[in-house]
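Let's practice the habit of predicting before peeking. Look at the sequence and jot down your guess about where helices and strands might fall. Then scroll down.
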Amino acid sequence: MMPTHKIHLVIAKRMSEILNMDLDELMLGSILPDISKEKSHSKTHYQNNKPGIEGTANPEKFIEIHQKELNNPLMMGYLLHLITDKFYNTYMFENFFIYDQAGNDIGLKIKGKEKILPFKKIKYYKHREFDLYDKWLLNNNKVPSFTSKECIDKVKNIDAATFDRERLSSYIDSHNKDVSKNNFFKKLTIYNYKLTTKKDLDNQLELCLKEIINYLNKIDKSL
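Done guessing? Here is the structure:
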């Protein structure tokens, strides 16, 4: 269950307060793995191409290569993205997927009831829930905007990803436009979740933040 960019940016905001790092740079870093020139999601997320939980984003591999660069908010943001993706995917696989005897995912637990579903329907439910949560986060002013584009000038290509500055600039413009669309009537929107509940999605976000903090504490002790 891949977290959306809005979730990544909410997490970046929360972590910037804890890490005392530049928010714009941390935010941009936290979405870089998804908007590189590379078409291979597996490469930019340091995945090992294994199925299920074992094949999710691999922050450990990123750390092996870039541990000494984590004082850079952009690189820390990149790491936050990988930890967040790994957490949300693992949470989804363990709490919502149902499997056949061979270990293949064949459906979802919807409001506690197991339902066999085709792959397209599984994907639909996953995206639908997060799309609704995105709207709630935006309509309740939880998602930060970028204050400037100066952070783009500090972006450097790395082993797994290269970047186009025009694309990054366009992304920031589009994101800030999304954030600025908030109004009173949107806040009255009814969010009809099918797979989860808003309470569960709020809980996932808080659990993810705890996972990130624990992960970073372990890294700090290993230095």
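How did you do? Strands lie at 97-99, 105-110, 113-116.
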